[in-house]
Amino acid sequence: MVQGVAPQGIVSLLDTDLYKLTMQCAVLKYFPDVSVTYSFTNRTPHMKLHRAAYKWLLKQLDYLAEIRVTAEEREFLRQKCPYLNDAYLSFLETFQLKPSEHVEVKFTPTQDTGSDDDEGNVEYVIKGLWLDTILYEIPLLALTSQAYFMFSDTDWDYENQEEKAYQKGCTLLENGCVFSEFGSRRRRDYHTQDLVMNGLCRAAEEGKKQGWSGVMAGTSNVHFAMKYNKAAVGTVAHEWYMTIAAITDDYENANELALSYWLGCFGEGVLGIALTDTFGTPAFLDAFSKPVSGPNEKAGARSTMTYAQSYTGVRQDSGDPAHFVQMVREFYDRQGITDKKTIVFSDSLDIEHCLEYKAIAEEAGFNPTFGVGTFFTNDYTQKTTGEKSRPLNIVIKIATANGSPAVKLSDNLGKNTGDHAKVQEVKKKLGYVEYSWEEGDESRRWTKQA
């Protein structure tokens, strides 16, 4: 184990991304009886965990079962997140995670000597009601990353982490960027995210003194939003669209259904950043152009508005950002929408990419904002070599809903997830073909059949 590494794991149920709470609120309203499974994937399979890390993770799961939302936390949510309705806040009063019922953990050593130093693969299977299991994803990912860097890659320390975050924040603010900290799921550990938040908040104060035009908008982590008196930032994740599609098997209308249910729960202009790439952005934009309908009982007389008019903007999370900006600009122009919409960029960001995408989006007439994750909370170098200490690339995705496979058709065609046969079926249903600019080019894009 790394000397001086804080063993602190998950300290609060709010130590998660806001969109898990907003989705759980909507699930309580519309889908309380849906059963799901989640699957875990390590996209960096050569980075293996030690048996000691696996044992530590089992203990952390036991600790998760003991955590409850406190009265102080519920009051924070009531005041700072007023879109979370009273029924949901009452639900949280008694909610608890039950990992012994919902989570299966398996460790498969590469060579089994019985030693705590044996390396191998950790696997999770999460199953239960969607309502009961939706909050496992972020803590399990954060704990797995922490376990790896406590027991496997130990050649690092916390030196300069707060100052590094401060300097990054200052650079973004001085260059006029509006950004939020999005680093919970792949953070090195809790203490790192705490140091980063300290550094970014210091940068925000410096920005105010200097009159810089950039803004630290907040953090996706609700616990740290409460601790540092910052806004909790986020809306919805791919699993909302994926699960609704899986339980209805209506992929032609899944985007519209997901958008409609979301408006029905939260209303127009609230949590209004739509995620576009669950089934490819072209299919999403088809749905985005339609009039608001379905379960959105809050629409009332405004039901003649389209979803594109009702939502304040979109999030770009895969594919080519420049192509995305062009595609969305042309879409809004065709729709005759002149309001200045927001684009949230959240895919593998660093300072260079934030500045590049900011220029592209502003030139196209958008308000760009940035959700910066791993670049903040897992940016380390090895002490002995000075080389980058690479973060784990791990994900937990919805796998099935009510027994049906759940799939995702990312704008990056290499990141499609879920049952392969179902992916091919959905591509056919949505009328997709794929192409690339040149042989071997990995920036292939979806295009619709004429």
Estimate the strand proportion.
Answer: 15-25%
For the record, what is the CATH homologous superfamily label of the largest domain?
nicotinate phosphoribosyltransferase
> What is the CATH C level class of the largest domain, in words?
Alpha Beta
Low-pLDDT segments, ≥5 res: 2-6, 435-442
Q: What level of helicity do the residues show?
A: 40-55%
The CATH topology of the largest domain is nicotinate phosphoribosyltransferase
Mean pLDDT: 92
Would you report the number of β strands?
A: 16
Structural class of the helix and strand makeup?
alpha/beta
How far apart are the termini?
58 Å
Major beta sheet summary: 6 strands, antiparallel
**CATH-level-2 architecture of the largest domain:** Alpha-Beta Barrel
- The domain tally reads 2
**Count of DSSP H/I helices:** 18
Taking all Cα atoms into account, the compactness measure Rg is 22 Å
Q: What gross morphology would you assign?
A: globular
What does it look like?
The chain is of the alpha/beta class. The chain folds into 2 domains: 163 residues, nicotinate phosphoribosyltransferase; 222 residues, Alpha-Beta Barrel (nicotinate phosphoribosyltransferase), CATH 3.20.140.10. Strands 1, 2, 3, 4, 13 and 14 form a 6-stranded antiparallel sheet that branches. The longest helix is centred in the middle third of the chain and has 21 residues. The radius of gyration is 22 Å and the shape is globular.
SSE topology:
Blueprint (H helix, E strand, L loop, with lengths): L17 H13 L4 E8 L6 E2 H14 L6 H10 L5 H9 L4 H4 E7 L9 E11 H4 L3 H15 L9 H14 L3 E4 L8 H21 L4 E5 L2 H7 L9 H11 L5 H13 L6 E3 L5 H8 L18 H4 L2 E4 L4 H15 L6 E4 L5 H13 L3 E6 L1 H4 L2 E2 L6 E2 L4 E8 L2 E2 L14 H10 L2 E4 L9 E4 L2
Parallel strand pairs: 5-6, 5-10, 7-8, 8-9, 9-10
Antiparallel strand pairs: 1-4, 1-13, 2-4, 3-4, 11-12, 13-14, 15-16
